[in-house]
Design goal:
mainly alpha; 0% strand; flat
């Protein structure tokens, strides 16, 4: 730190600092104005999204009541229905960048604090910290479980149970914040963590005695198995999510879970048997606790834990099992990505022109004639201009086929077939002209 020699140098330094402060004041004033503008733009976007969804609902209801009179009306109805669905996906993508209201759970825990993270880099950093938190605590729980298997000290038991309660309680809060900021975790896997918090709390209040000692060893072996399984799931899910996000098939805020989702089908099916073994372990825990509830000296914690483990077993088994028939049934899945609207909309007449090109090129190849009506020739000429423009622009949306058991090789072959089909269409179109 510089030490000034006399009063004149101090006055000079103060004068320079005053000029810098004036610059700071002007910068702060601009900052406040931009904050007000940002708040206004956010409110406008939210209002327009609500308006879009309201009118989309009216259009969707009207389309359901429509009965097409001919093939052309049926085609226009189908195209418009697809456009409505694509617009819904686009609105969801836009909404991810806007602030959302905190849920009831966060309001109870944190109050009316704004937990929205508008900076995308900060969002990803928070998500990565959440993943590291799960990994570190999972390894600590594994070490404590092994220690409890080797020794029989009540202090380590209570430490392990307190860690379980704190871990799942913190996990539910972090997941709620991630959900506000665009994470897709929902349904049973979120409720699973709330139930696990209750399980840890009941275990913490279970007094030492004969029933507790009869279940203690089994409980620690269960946690050793679950910790190892969760570590394997975490490592493999991280790689799977990284690959799918790079392909654009998953959201950037998706997180790892303890269960099984449809996006894990390609890389993690080998873990399914181990998951079901873990669920069976939960069922066996419930049965053992049910038997212990009739032992002399049994407390209320024993039947309560039996019911909670049974709930976890049924929820995990049913939710994971529902993924399999759903994945087998849904062999083709549409994926939509948000793009600027001016690159998205195709008019139905242009789509009809493209269909005419396909049908007439097929007819010409079969009959050997290429005579078209003037109206069809005009549509084909218009399509030719659009095709030349599309070569320099991005496609506005994609319809990709996802085949069970397929990998990136099949996707690349499908994309190459799609490009080849377009090239053949252009060649036939030029011949028709």
């Amino acid at each position: 730190m510089e030490i000034f020699g006399n009063i004149e140098s101090c006055v000079k330094e103060w004068t320079d600092l005053t000029l810098d402060y004036k610059q700071l004041e002007s910068t702060h004033k601009v900052y406040q104005e931009k904050l007000q503008e940002l708040s206004k733009f956010q409110s406008d976007c939210i209002s327009q999204i609500r308006h879009q969804r309201y009118r989309l609902g009216l259009i969707a209801k009207a389309l359901k009541r429509q009965k097409p009179d001919d093939e052309d009306d049926e085609e226009r109805l189908e195209c418009l229905s697809k456009d409505v669905e694509k617009r819904k996906f686009q609105l969801n993508e836009i909404e991810d960048d806007l602030p959302r209201e905190s849920g009831l759970y966060l309001k109870i825990i944190l109050g009316t604090v704004n937990v929205n993270i508008l900076d995308k880099a900060a969002r990803f950093k928070y998500k990565d910290e959440y993943e590291k938190f799960k990994l570190v605590l999972n390894l600590i729980a594994l070490v404590l479980s092994v220690i409890n298997l080797i020794t029989n000290q009540r202090v380590f038991d209570l430490l392990f149970m307190f860690l379980t309660v704190w871990y799942y309680c913190t996990l539910t809060i972090r997941e709620s914040i991630l959900k506000v900021n665009g994470s897709k975790i929902k349904g049973w896997w979120r409720l699973h963590h709330f139930i696990s918090t209750v399980v840890g709390g009941v275990m913490l209040t279970w007094p030492d005695g004969t029933p507790y000692q009869g279940f203690r060893q089994q409980l620690m072996w269960f946690h050793v198995y679950i910790s190892c399984l969760q570590y394997l799931q975490f490592r493999y899910q991280q790689g799977c999510l990284y690959r799918l996000k790079a392909l654009g098939d998953r959201h950037n805020m998706d997180i790892t879970i303890e269960g099984f989702h449809s996006w894990m089908w390609r890389g993690l099916t080998f873990l399914l048997p181990f998951l079901y073994i873990g669920y069976g372990f939960q069922c066996y825990n419930s049965y053992k606790l049910y038997k212990l509830s009739f032992v002399e000296g049994a407390t209320w914690q024993i039947p309560a834990l039996s019911l909670l483990f049974l709930t976890l077993f049924l929820g995990n088994t049913i939710t994971t099992s529902l993924v399999i028939p759903q994945k087998i049934k849904d062999r083709v899945k549409l994926k939509y990505r948000y793009v600027p609207l001016n690159k998205y909309l195709w008019s139905h007449s242009k789509r009809r022109a493209r269909k005419i090109t396909h049908s007439d090129s097929t007819r010409s190849s079969i009959t050997g004639t290429d005579k078209l009506t003037p109206e069809e020739q005009e549509m084909i000429a218009e399509l030719s201009k659009l095709t030349s423009q599309d070569n320099t622009k991005h496609v506005s949306f994609s319809e990709e086929e996802e085949i069970i058991g397929g990998g990136t090789d099949e996707e690349s072959r499908e994309n190459s077939d799609w490009k080849g089909e377009n090239e053949n269409t252009e060649t036939d179109m030029k011949k028709n002209e």
